[in-house]
Design goal:
- The structure is a single chain.
- The protein is mostly beta strands.
- Helices cover about 10% and strands about 40% of the residues.
- It has one domain.
- The strands form 2 sheets. It has a 4-stranded antiparallel sheet with strand order 1-6-3-4.
- Pfam families: DUF1883 (PF08980).
Length: about 110
């Protein structure tokens, strides 16, 4: 099997639930690929794979996990000059109010 011929930065998100938002910060234009474990294996072996994301022209970008699974994020420069530094974080969910609830008075 052919291996990919360009460098990339890999983030293993492990098992993560649907609806979680991931924020990727970049220092330059780069490709960002959010993919399942199976698609990451295809990617590493230079085979056709599916992913969410694409060319990130601004930073940061946010991607939402579409289903419960083992996920990976890859940042690469394929087709772009130079190198991009990157970082990733899980965006905390907004806190829901926990105070007393009142019914509308009529």
């Amino acid at each position: 099997m052919a291996q990919i011929s360009f460098p990339y930065t890999h983030y293993d998100l492990k098992d993560i639930r649907a609806g979680v938002t991931i924020e990727i910060t970049l220092s330059a234009i780069a490709n960002v690929r959010l993919m399942t474990n199976a698609d990451f294996d295809l990617f590493r072996n230079g085979r056709q794979h599916k992913f969410l994301g694409g060319v990130a022209k601004k930073s940061p970008i946010r991607l939402t996990i579409p289903k419960d699974a083992h996920w990976h994020v890859v940042v690469d420069m394929e087709g772009h000059p130079g190198k991009a530094e990157s970082s990733i974080r899980v965006v905390p969910k907004p806190k829901t109010p926990t105070g007393p609830r009142f019914a509308n008075a009529t």
